[in-house]
Amino acid sequence: MPAGVDGPARGAAAMSPALELQGLHHRYDQHAVLHGIDLALAPGDFAALIGPNGSGKTTLLHCLAGLLRASAGRVLIGGHDLDRDPLAAKRALGFAVDPARLPPLLSGRECLRLFAGARGLDAIPEPTLALCATLSLQPMLDRRIGQYSLGTRQKLAIALGLLGEPPLLVLDEPLNGLDPLSAYALKRHLQELARERGVAVLLATHSLDVAERFITRAALLVDGRLRRQWDAGELDAIRADPARSLEQSMIDALAGE
Ligand SMILES: Nc1ncnc2c1ncn2[C@@H]1O[C@H](COP(=O)(O)OP(=O)(O)OP(=O)(O)O)[C@@H](O)[C@H]1O
């Protein structure tokens, strides 16, 4: 078990994969988008989901967060079946909502309080406030979300997703709109959660160059199928060789090599 992992929720999460997708399919009406995705994340994995535009990354994340119902297959979060036991599954999941969907009339602090309440907490947890400070979000917390810039909304969506430190974090393009300092702080924070707290992180991103240094796993989605995965050893080998990069490996995999 990773260092610093304790408590019953983490104990349960450490015994089963943090996330397990079994034969996941999704179709929008007649348009089949996901074709049998099998993927497992262990506690402490920091994984990037990469792939061309329209390959199905957001659809996959929405299926595993319960925002879309998969047409077939199973989603298990910390061993809990999302279909059969949605409350337990969703308790084990932190999902950063689309920043465009945040309620414009609430302040950031009100929104954090609301989400904290939904997680059974009576106040905004200290680590969340510390993260807001790290991301320079704190000075904006008492302003209405409707007045936030795109990057500030993105920061709030991330802080909401991470609230209560659930054992699985899922983020869709979290680096979009973040200034370089905030993007670096977020990557370090996620890396620390994975390494020291055993949190499993799955993030969809196009920013291969920035993700490459931090992740321990990568999975390439092409036309709704997982074409290639890289484990920690393969990523270390890529990082150790100045002539190689994850970007080039991805391009090779896309070319079918
Ligand atoms: N609500 C919807 N109704 C119908 N088709 C949809 C819907 N949402 C997405 N799609 C289609 O599903 C496919 C996958 O889209 P998705 O947004 O999951 O891809 P993505 O990999 O996240 O793309 P990007 O990298 O551009 O964000 C695309 O062909 C898209 O047009």
From TrEMBL:
Q: Where are the transmembrane segments?
A: none
Q: Which PROSITE patterns match?
A: ABC_TRANSPORTER_2
Domain of life (superkingdom): Bacteria
Domain ABC transporter: from-to ranges? 19-248
Taxonomically, what lineage is the organism? Bacteria, Pseudomonadati, Pseudomonadota, Gammaproteobacteria, Lysobacterales
Entry GO MF terms: ATP binding; ATP hydrolysis activity
What PANTHER family is this protein classified in? ABC TRANSPORTER ATP-BINDING PROTEIN ALBC-RELATED
Quote the CDD domains the UniProt record gives: ABC_DR_subfamily_A (cd03230)
Q: What is this protein called?
A: ABC transporter, ATP-binding protein
Keyword annotations = ATP-binding, Nucleotide-binding, Transport
Gene3D superfamilies given for it? P-loop containing nucleotide triphosphate hydrolases
Any one Pfam family here would be ABC_tran
Q: Is Chaperone there in the keyword field?
A: no
